[in-house]
Design goal:
The complex is a heterotrimer of chains A (110), B (327) and C (118). Chain A contains 3 helices and no strands. The longest helix of chain A is centred in the C-terminal third of the chain and has 31 residues. Chain A has 110 residues and is an all-alpha fold. In chain A, helix 1 packs antiparallel against helix 2. Chain A has one domain. Classes of the chains: A mainly alpha (110), B mainly alpha (327), C mainly alpha (118). Chains B and C meet through helix 1, helix 2, helix 3, helix 4 and helix 5 of B and helix 1, helix 2 and helix 3 of C.
């Protein structure tokens, strides 16, 4: 009884946390100045967001075949999406996109 | 709850489409098209169409994006916006939208079990499949057996598309053996460790999963089309990571042509065997003493034929686009 | 709730007309092909929306569940065929666009018509 309540609370916390991380990643992808920082923000969604959401669902699924499938999906996503982000950043670098730089001391308040 | 999710996805679909219309960069339009395909695959899944969702994700979001990018590599990637008759088009389209919206008020609401579409043939299929064909997946049973003639036509449509692309774009037999590639041409991603490693790690699993989907089409979502798309996606990944020459050494063009033709001939052969054994064309009950076992055998062979042809044609089209040099 | 019951069909109407708008008002051949793809996907959405049954599940028969309602499998079969045919059309259209580019140097339709008139 208590065990399932704890599991429920934990999975809810993970799902809400994962949703918040995905939202933060989305806001970052909109607000950041150039390609590289935008991808850096969006990759939060790929890694920690994926882990939190899928762990939350695994806790809901309990110990069953579905949990193994979800774990396999998590491993697959963790392997492929950062690779895609790497390939994207590399392609941007090869295409000549230069990271936005700010000179030292400019815009620095402290 | 799931209705809310569906509504959210559908709204995202419309927003993505508006984005596709407004962007002038074709590369961005193609990427948005991939996102559109993935969203519509999720909508299909919510609407209980598991097979269709799998096919749309594999073919629409995967293969179509690769084909469009392969063609874009040979073309300019910015659209020059003209002003010709845009206002008239917008007025016509708006009028059409209002007309169709007015017509939708006569539709039965989503999920209504008393809708006319659920009354005639569908209950018969669901009731008779356990008795006549005995496979759990009703969609595969209808696709391969009850409506096998349509699938036969479709295999030949995709076969024709492959031949058409070869006619239009192939450079002849020496295309793969050209030795005058420019020296700065990096073969595949030789110098990029991370994609190369991950690609090589994943490729066998992709092909294995494709084979699983092929043979499991009777018991769960799957079948020949999805399997063909997945296997060709695995081999396209190999071509992207290791270079086109290495991919053509792995699976030469001859083998691809052989696969394509073998698949189509297998389908026709099964149909003719049924005729020779006393039944009608594509009537699989004639293939074995027990009608249900005959149906199983027929469906297995026909799905293998479909998978072979689809993978052969998709790979042929990819290699034809990749081998073409930019004019 | 009646609104939600028809929302799929309204989205279908919007996507259909947006796809048609792209085909008739944009000059670039690749953009037209993308618009055609959107048009086809809208039709798929219409068919698959028709197949859902309240309380139904995917039409994969289960031996243990007795009174299980299943969604209609027939539109799914039609759309499976249609998706693959759509890809075939797209591939051929792209091949023709590439050849047109090599022959004329451009894939904008108004420039092509100009060149043909000369």
């Amino acid at each position: 009884m208590i065990g399932s309540l704890i599991l429920d609370i934990l999975s809810w916390a993970l799902l809400i946390g994962g949703g918040a991380l995905v939202f933060i990643g989305g806001v970052g992808a909109l607000r950041m100045p150039d390609v590289y920082t935008r991808m850096h923000a969006a990759s939060i969604t790929d890694t920690l967001g994926t882990i939190c959401v899928l762990l939350g669902i695994i806790l809901q699924a309990g110990l069953s075949f579905a949990a193994i499938k979800l774990a396999a999906i998590m491993i697959f996503l963790l392997l492929t999406t950062p690779t895609a982000a790497y390939a994207l950043a590399n392609a941007a670098r090869l295409a000549g996109v230069v990271p936005v730089r700010r000179a030292a001391g400019e815009g620095d308040s402290s | 709850m799931i209705t809310l999710f569906g509504v959210f996805l559908l709204t995202l679909l419309v927003i993505t489409t508006v984005g596709i219309v407004r962007t002038q960069n074709l590369f961005a339009a193609i990427m948005l098209m991939g996102i559109f395909s993935l969203q519509i695959a999720a909508v299909f899944f919510i609407l209980d169409a598991a097979d269709v969702a799998l096919t749309e994700a594999a073919v629409g979001a995967g293969i179509a994006t690769v084909l469009l990018l392969g063609a874009l590599a040979l073309l300019d990637d910015t659209e020059r916006r003209g002003r010709r008759a845009s206002r008239l088009a917008a007025v016509v389209v708006a009028a059409g939208t209002l007309l169709i919206l007015y017509a939708t008020f006569d539709y039965p609401r989503l999920g209504d079990p008393a809708a006319p579409v659920h009354q005639h043939v569908a209950p018969w299929y669901i009731a008779e499949t356990p008795r006549l064909i005995d496979t759990p997946n009703v969609v595969t049973a209808i696709l391969a057996s009850f409506r096998g003639y349509d699938t036969f036509g479709e295999v030949f449509v995709i076969f024709t598309a492959g031949i058409g692309v070869l006619f239009i774009l192939a450079n002849g037999a020496d295309a793969a053996r050209r030795s005058d590639l420019p020296s700065s041409d990096v073969q595949g991603l030789r110098h990029h460790l991370v994609p190369r490693l991950v690609g090589r790690l994943l490729m066998p699993f992709l092909v294995l999963f494709g084979l699983y989907i092929q043979f499991h089409g009777d018991f769960g979502p799957g079948g020949g089309f999805q399997a063909g798309a997945l296997i060709s996606a695995g081999l396209i990944l190999y071509a992207l990571v290791e270079g086109e020459r290495a991919a053509l050494r792995l699976v030469p063009q001859r083998v691809l042509t052989l696969l394509t033709v073998a698949g189509a001939l297998l389908f026709v052969g099964v149909g003719c065997a049924c005729m020779l054994l006393g039944g009608n064309f594509l009537d699989y009950s004639a293939l074995s003493a027990d009608a249900v076992a005959g149906q199983h055998l027929g469906i297995l062979l026909v799905e293998i034929g479909v998978g072979l042809t689809v993978s052969g044609v998709l790979l042929t089209i990819f290699h034809t686009f990749a081998a073409r040099e930019r004019a | 709730m009646a609104v939600l019951g028809l929302y799929n069909y309204w989205v279908f109407a919007l996507l259909l007309m947006i796809g048609l708008y792209v085909v008739i008002s944009r000059e670039n051949l690749v953009k037209k092909l993308i618009g055609l793809s959107i048009f086809q996907s809208a039709v798929f959405l219409l068919y698959i929306s028709m197949d859902k049954v309240d309380g139904g599940t995917a039409p994969i028969l289960r031996a243990d569940a007795e009174n299980q309602l299943y969604s209609n499998p027939l539109p799914q079969v039609l759309i499976l065929t249609a998706i693959v045919v759509g890809i075939a059309t797209l591939a051929l259209g792209l091949a023709i666009a590439v050849r047109i580019n090599e022959a004329y140097g451009t894939i904008e339709e108004d420039e092509l018509l100009e060149m043909d008139r000369e």
